[in-house]
Amino acid sequence: MSVPMTLLGLLEREPSHGYDLKRDYDTFFSRGKPLPFGQVYATLSRLVRDGKIVVGEVEPGVGPERKRYVITERGATDVESWLTEPVEAEPNLQTVLFTKVVLALMLGRPAEEYLDVQRATHLRRMKELTEIKRSGNLVDAMLADHGLFHLEADLHWIDTTAARLDALAKEVRG
After folding, report:
1. Cα separation of 86 and 117, whole Å?
2. What is the pTM of this model?
3. Handedness of CA 21, 63, 47, 51 (dihedral sign)
4. Known Pfam families for this protein (predicted)?
5. Alpha-helix residue ranges (DSSP H) falling in the chain
6. Residue 93 has pLDDT above 60, yes or no
7. H-helix or E-strand containing 85?
């Protein structure tokens, strides 16, 4: 999971306070493992330092001032690059791919096209693993089977998600 890229994507959707970013992150991406406030603000500080976001409005709050963060052109370019680059085809892919799909839908981007690119990446890797299975020893074949089964499950998830994109878009856009 890429916390900085996810926060940038949420900021591209709309300028936000750190508290709101944490809430949205926890709602859509944490799945039972909330993002610590310290990590949110440390990440935001690095993004400011790197010129990917700026501090916009500062409002008085109960306690410290509330800063509204705004994505810069550089940050938006990074989000676009990250969203369009396929995830390495490997087990446990769904977390990053799911995040990309949800952010793409939130941002009005072509999530179906991203899923198509990911599907092609998986199919290429499956072809490689099939060749390893065919030409390798039993250990290689067993490892290739392990990878192939995970990739098959991922492809099933990609197809199921593609079929549900309209419903998911409605849910994540509120």
Report:
1. 7
2. 0.70
3. positive
4. PadR (PF03551)
5. 3-13, 18-25, 37-49, 73-84, 94-106, 111-135, 138-163, 165-173
6. no
7. none
Backbone torsion region of residue 60, taken as left when φ is above 0, otherwise alpha when ψ lies between -120 and 50, otherwise beta: beta
pLDDT tens digits for range 30-88: 766 889 999 999 999 999 999 999 999 888 767 777 899 999 999 999 999 999 999 88
Q: Which residue has the tokens 């593609």?
A: 162
Indicate the SS3 state at residue 32.
coil
Strand-strand pairing, 16-17 and 53-59: unpaired
What is the spatial distance between Cα 107 and Cα 10, in angstroms, rounded to a whole number? Answer: 8
pLDDT reported for residue 43:
97
* C-beta separation of 11 from 66 below 8 A: no
Closest to 154 (Cα-Cα) out of 97, 114, 100, 112:
97
